[in-house]
Write a structure and sequence with these properties.
The complex is a heterodimer of chains A (232) and B (180). With 232 residues, chain A is an all-alpha fold. Chain A contains 8 helices and no strands. Chain A is globular and about 60 Å long. By secondary structure, chain B is an alpha/beta fold. Chain B has 2 domains: 109 residues, Rossmann fold; 67 residues, Orthogonal Bundle (Arc Repressor Mutant, subunit A). Helices cover 50% and strands 11% of the residues of chain B. In chain B, strands 2-1-3-4-5 form a 5-stranded parallel beta sheet. In chain B, strand 1, helix 1 and strand 2 form a beta-alpha-beta unit. In chain B, helix 6 packs across helix 8, helix 6 crosses helix 9 and helix 7 crosses helix 8. The longest helix of chain B is centred in the first third of the chain and has 15 residues. In chain B, 37% of the residues are buried. The chains are: A mainly alpha (232), B alpha/beta (180).
Chain lengths: 232, 180
């Protein structure tokens, strides 16, 4: 939970990242890198050709658990959110998941071979990873195309079954929480402390990022999709 | 250490009958109380379970809500079993009450052991990890689904693990089931 005030057009990007370093991952997905200078939300958006209300809404939704956008501006494009979430998925595939796997591998190689707990935790992580990859594939094969199709008004036959996070099955987020609990509460035997910490930090970072981006899916993209569907 | 069960029901006959069932099943001499004041005079940390009825519970929320984790509320309608409050319906005799009491008293039995879970919870965990759903677990252990839900809630609270996969891997890590 952040203590940062709500972001507006005049907020400096450096102030956001200093207060909440995790916001850098959001900026990265807009193509903004470190070395922010005194760039504000408005000036960054002018350079990128993005609606500043949109960027402020994305960052506020990401950082503030209690923030619900009061209105979805007509200038917001579902395609821009789809692009953002697509970048997010790529980040998971090419950065977050490999980092955790690499740290786990190192942790196991540097720990007591008789400690089978770590091997089982890695196996559990591989199951979580596959579930996340399946979910990402579903985004790209079904949900995102359906949204883009609805926005383009290209067809009368739009797939309306969208991913929901409230089904009975255990979610990726549930399982990541469990994996974190296993490490924090139940890890036993001899292991490398620093590498265990690296695994734990990477797992926590992935879980937090998924949770924060779920807010963007559920509070921005889903309402926009329903509006698009109802307009047909 | 002897276990303390308190019964506080409006119907004195039901209270006496339940006291006898508890004595027969658990060998515990339950205290039958008639007023909430009597309950308040007992040291709260000496009571393992309070069994009461919906009327007492609703009329004395200020007393019962802080103790809800150790209170069983008897109702004469089908009970929903997934809330924070341990509600047991009395439509099917005393068996569901005994099940619910077992969940509390089994747990108490094992508090001095090194294990984080009671024997009954380990048994439930083993069945969850082997892929059984709640109904199958209830049938296998001859307990009600409400009791299975209570055990599962306790397991998750103790272990910090909620998902079936997570529980399965925990069970493998601790030799409760064989690794796949």
């Amino acid at each position: 939970m952040t203590n940062l005030a709500l972001i507006n057009h005049d907020t400096k990007l450096s102030d956001i990242v200093i207060a909440e370093p995790s916001a850098l991952t959001v900026l990265n997905r807009f193509g903004i890198r470190l070395g922010l200078g005194d760039l504000t939300v408005a000036r960054a958006c002018a350079q990128l050709g993005i609606d500043p209300d949109f960027m402020a809404t994305i960052i506020n939704t990401y950082l503030h658990e209690d923030y619900f956008p009061d209105r979805i501006h007509s200038t917001f494009k579902a395609a821009t959110i789809v692009d953002y979430l697509g970048q997010t998925n790529n980040y998971y595939i090419h950065f977050h998941l490999p980092v955790i796997e690499r740290h786990f591998g190192l942790l196991i190689s540097k720990s007591d071979p008789a400690n089978n707990n770590l091997g089982l935790m890695l196996k559990f992580f591989m199951e979580v990873k596959q579930q996340l990859l399946d979910r990402i594939a579903d985004d790209h094969e079904h949900w995102f195309p359906a949204i883009l199709q609805a926005e383009a008004n290209a067809s009368d036959t739009i797939e309306t079954s969208i991913r929901t996070d409230d089904c009975d099955a255990d979610t990726v987020e549930d399982k990541l929480n469990d994996l974190i609990s296993m490490m924090v509460i139940h890890l036993s035997g001899k292991y490398d402390t620093n590498l265990a910490l690296a695994v734990l930090m990477a797992l926590t970072s992935l879980k937090n990022d998924l949770t924060q981006n779920n807010r963007i899916r559920n509070r921005l993209l889903k309402p926009m999709f329903h509006v698009l569907i109802n307009n047909h | 250490m002897s276990r303390q069960v308190v019964i506080i029901l409006h119907n004195a006959m039901e209270a006496a009958g339940l006291r006898r069932v508890i004595d027969d099943t658990f060998g515990i001499d339950a205290h039958v109380l008639h007023t909430i004041d009597q309950l308040l005079r007992l040291p709260a940390d000496h009571i393992d379970v309070v069994v009461t009825d919906a009327q007492h519970f609703v009329e004395n929320l200020r007393t019962f809500l802080p103790r809800k984790a150790r209170t069983i509320v008897l109702v004469d309608k089908p009970a929903l079993g997934d809330g924070d409050i341990n509600i047991v319906d009395t439509l099917h005799g005393t068996e569901p009450i005994v099940d619910a009491l077992s969940a509390f008293l089994d747990e108490k039995d094992d508090e001095t052991s090194a294990s984080l879970l009671s024997q009954r919870e380990i048994e439930v965990l083993r069945l969850v990890a082997s892929g059984m759903i709640n109904k199958q677990i209830a049938d296998t252990l001859n307990i009600s689904i409400n009791t299975v839900l209570t055990h599962r809630k306790n397991i998750t609270a103790k272990l910090g693990i909620k998902s079936v996969s997570g529980l399965s891997f925990y069970a493998m890590m601790n030799g409760i089931i064989d690794p796949k």
